[in-house]
Design goal:
17 strands, 275 residues, 15-stranded mixed β-sheet, two-stranded antiparallel ribbon, elongated, 3 helices, alpha+beta
Length: 275
């Protein structure tokens, strides 16, 4: 009679082991197709700043020269659909895993007030799992929550001796600071965790600005940004990765040139797969 409880315990244990044996880790997605679009969500001041009908261009200022143009910030979306390979290891971008993102162009023209002081760029990444077949569940995950980028911008005085960028000529370089929206937006798909990381890869070099430049833009010391020469157009090309591990920091400026190679390698890999 005393053996029955022991048998009951044994049967429960065996059932538990059988159940555990059927649990398997979901297959990691190694390749995705994507589209990426950006618009200006908000900006300041609201008076004197013009937002285009497609919400991709902010224009401001009265031209300082006859026949001149306003200054502007323009968003250009990457061609769709694109391909991006999952980065499985490492806490910073690896060659061949960086996909083409949005391009942000500052057309810096001599103007009189009013001037843009800040803006928020809203980017929407739409993902579809592509490879391997066993990792694809219903074709998702689809549109992700918007990625928000807080931007501070300073139209500097064009007067000799007032330039806060040390290497700046007169007229002074304008100052562009990006405050948020870089790393580790979480994505859970089919039981696996991924992280979306977006950062500049070429064009204007994003680096740590001087304390004086940060202060001029209304940012704290140690801000990340770049300056743009008067009378020129400066493009900042963004790339992004999908990783299975969190990135620990924004890539250092010295790494960004390598990431340009990564973009090219990723594009070539995609073409080879489609061939």
């Amino acid at each position: 009679m005393k053996s029955r409880p022991a048998l009951k315990k044994l049967s429960v244990l065996l059932v538990g082991l059988a159940s555990a044996a059927t649990v398997q880790a979901a297959t990691v997605v190694t390749e995705w197709t994507y589209s990426l679009t950006g618009v200006w969500q908000s900006f300041a001041p609201t008076a004197g700043i013009t937002l285009s009908g497609d919400e991709k261009t902010l224009s401001w200022g009265a031209p300082a020269t006859t026949g001149g143009n306003q200054s502007s910030l323009m968003i250009t979306d990457p061609a769709a659909p694109g391909n991006v390979v999952t980065q499985i290891t490492g806490d910073s971008p690896q060659l061949g895993t960086t996909a083409t993102g949005i391009t942000l162009t500052h057309n810096n023209n001599p103007i009189f007030a009013p001037s843009l002081t800040s803006a928020v760029l809203r980017a929407t990444l739409n993902l579809t799992a592509a490879q391997p077949a066993e990792a694809v569940v219903g074709g998702g995950p689809g549109p992700l929550p918007p990625l928000l980028y807080d931007i501070l911008f300073t139209e500097t005085p064009n007067t000799a001796g007032t330039c806060v960028i040390g290497s700046s000529p007169t007229p002074c370089n304008d100052i562009f600071v990006q405050q948020t929206g870089f790393l580790n937006q979480p994505l859970t798909y089919n039981g696996n965790d991924y992280f979306i990381n977006i950062f500049p890869t070429s064009g204007g070099v994003l680096s740590t600005l001087s304390d004086a430049a940060c202060a001029a833009a209304g940012a704290a010391d140690g801000c990340l940004g770049f300056s743009t020469p008067e009378g020129q157009s400066t493009a900042l090309q963004f790339g992004f990765t999908i990783s299975t591990e969190r990135f620990s920091q924004v890539p250092e400026p010295g790494i960004l040139a390598l990431l340009g190679i990564g973009l090219a390698a990723g594009a070539l890999t995609g073409r080879r797969r489609r061939a």
